[in-house]
């Protein structure tokens, strides 16, 4: 069994992403294991895990993510979720779903967002959570993030109403910050009560494996890593001739057609972007060879090896 590929892990609550990597490393008896997209310990759901040589491909995974979360109103905490110290608590039974619906468009599209005080963002070489634990307050610049979808799943009125949301967003978006800022807009305060990542880097929660399921597959010798080609479909691809395949493994730069597709392939539905850009590389037998970068030289279009597997 090859162990080069990806694992779509359904992360349990109470473990850091680093803990998950360590446990996968022990279960598979692998040294080279990495993850794509850190999850807070309390958050569950999709955590992409790269195995063996695939750890070199993490930088090429898709960045968009999706979540299912619960926001609790009338409550603010130091961490913007239920893991932190309660700063303010006030019943808000008057809050209605209509008011929440009217406020949600403020958080759609490209928005500015201040990261939570307890987050992994670095300031002066220090993580914000490290400074926050010491009681140090630092100014952090707002970050531009993008939210593609905010869909209401459920609403539970009461003294501390709760809203269930489905959220699709770009890289770097903090759902805790959306909860905090939504509470501020409504003058009620709010915090994130729970969160599950349902999609990340092309992986979905429906196809994820828990640690228990992974262990069972390993015991039954049924575990098979996800191939790179299954998660790199957002990149274009090129098929090399036998001669070019040999030169690829020698690390040579290869002149290619301006529209770099397989010699026997057509690409009409995926427009080729302007150079430079990364490209999947395959041989004629369909074997994944790595990632190349396409760039224009003075006389031709060149494919340069970036990751050779």
General description of the model:
The structure is a single chain. This protein is of the alpha+beta class and 309 residues long. It has helices at residues 17-28, 97-103, 128-133, 175-185, 211-219, 242-249, and strands at 5-11, 33-35, 44-51, 65-73, 75-77, 86-89, 109-113, 122-123, 126-127, 143-156, 162-169, 190-200, 203-204, 236-239, 254-256, 277-282, 288-296, 301-308. The strands form 4 sheets. Strands 1, 2, 3, 4, 7, 10, 11, 12 and 13 form a 9-stranded mixed beta sheet that branches. Strands 14-16-17-18-15 form a 5-stranded mixed beta sheet, covered by helices on one side. A two-stranded antiparallel ribbon has the order 5-6. A hairpin with an 8-residue loop joins β2 and β3. The model is unreliable at 262-270 (pLDDT under 50).
C-alpha geometry: elongated
Unreliable stretches (pLDDT < 50, length at least 5) are 262-270
Mean pLDDT across residues: 89
**How many beta-strand runs?**
18
Largest sheet: 9 strands, mixed
Short recap of the structure:
The chain has 309 residues and is of the alpha+beta class. The chain is 17% helix and 35% strand. Strands 1, 2, 3, 4, 7, 10, 11, 12 and 13 form a nine-stranded mixed β-sheet that branches.
Q: Features of this protein?
A:
309 residues; alpha+beta; 5-stranded mixed beta sheet; 6 helices; 35% strand; elongated
Write the layout of secondary structure elements.
Layout: E1 5-11, H1 17-28, E2 33-35, E3 44-51, E4 65-73, E5 75-77, E6 86-89, H2 97-103, E7 109-113, E8 122-123, E9 126-127, H3 128-133, E10 143-156, E11 162-169, H4 175-185, E12 190-200, E13 203-204, H5 211-219, E14 236-239, H6 242-249, E15 254-256, E16 277-282, E17 288-296, E18 301-308
Parallel strand pairs: 3-12, 14-16
Antiparallel strand pairs: 1-3, 2-3, 4-11, 4-12, 5-6, 7-10, 8-9, 10-11, 12-13, 15-18, 16-17, 17-18
